[in-house]
Amino acid sequence: MEKLNKKTDYKSFIKSAQNKSDQSECKRCCTCCAKGGPALHKDDLDLVKSGKLHGKFLFTIREGEPAEDNVKGGLIQAETDVVKIKSKDGTEACLYADFSNNQCSIYENRPLECKVLKCWDTSEIEALYDKDRLTRKDIIGEIQGLWELVEEHQEKCSFSEVKQIIDENQGKIAGKALEQLLEIVQYDISIRALVLEKTDTDPNLIPFLFGTPMQLILRKLGIEFKQRT
Ligand code: SF4
Ligand code: SF4
Ligand 2 centroid to 117 CA: how many Å? Predict the structure, then answer.
C-alpha cells in the first residue's frame, strides 16, 4: 500500500482516547460520531440489503483511490472499495449523529465499527477496521446491467492508470497526458449523467455507485480542470 502524506484529525482523537484509562463503558456522547461515519464490513451486509442502511446514505471510496486512513493517519491508496456512511453537509460528522441529544439515530442498527469502537481502548477497532470490508460488488454485484456499468466505470476511471499518467509525467500534466486525464474526467461525468437520464436512479445513490467525481479527486492531487462553457 502506497503511503502519501496528510495528517488526520481522527488520529489525534484515537491517540487522546488512549489516555482515558479510567473509562470502562461508552457514555454515548457522540464525540466519535462527530469525527466521521464508519466504513462498512461484510458483517454489515444485511443492514444494507434489508434497507436499514440505505445506499443513498452511503458513499464509496473506490479501490485504488487516494484516501485518508482514519486510524493510522495519512493518505493511502484504498486496497478495496471502502463503503462508508456519508457525512452531514459541510462537516465530518456522521449523517446519523443527532447532536440535539447526542445520540445515534440508528443505534439499534449501527454498523460493526460503531459497535466495537471504545474510545478508551482502541485495540478492537484497530484490529478490524481494514479487514473484511464491504464492497460495492457485495451489495449490487447481482444486479445485472447496473453492476456491469459500475465495473466499466472502475476500469475506465482506473486509479492505477491515473497514477501512471501522473508518475510518467512527473506531475507536469500537459499535451497527451492532459488529454488522457480529460478523457477520464469526461467519461466519469457522462456516465453519472447517463444513469440519471436513462434510469430512475435516485441522484443520492451516485456517490455510492461511482464514488467521488474524478474531477474532485484530481483536484486533490493538484490537477485542476476548468469547466467547458
Ligand atoms: S465511544 Fe464514542 S460515544 Fe462512546 S464514550 Fe467514546 S466518544 Fe463517546
Ligand atoms: S452510525 Fe451512529 S454510532 Fe455510528 S458513527 Fe454514525 S451516529 Fe455514530
Answer: 10
pLDDT band at 8 (very low <50, low <70, confident <90, very high): very low
- Please list, residue by residue across 132-157, b when 16 or more beta carbons sit within 10 angstroms of its beta carbon and e when fewer do: ebbbbebbbeeeeebbebbeebbeeb
The beta-carbon contacts of 192-199 under 8 Å, at least 24 apart in sequence, are 195/149
The answer, yes or no, to whether any atom of ligand 2 lies below 6 A from the CB of 38, is: yes
| Domain end (from 137, 172, 191) | 137
Which residue do the cell numbers 444485511 mark? 46
**Residue 37 contacts residue 122 (beta carbons within 8 Å):** no
Instruction: List, in sequence order, the alpha helices (H) in the chain.
Output: 9-17, 45-49, 112-116, 123-128, 136-140, 146-156, 159-168, 175-198, 206-210, 214-220
The answer to whether the predicted template modeling score (pTM) of the entire model surpasses 0.90 is no
**52 and 115: one domain?**
yes
- Which ligand 2 atom is nearest residue 97's CA? 7
94 lines ligand 1 (CB under 6 A): no
Residue-wise pLDDT for 146-155, tens only, equals 999 999 999 9
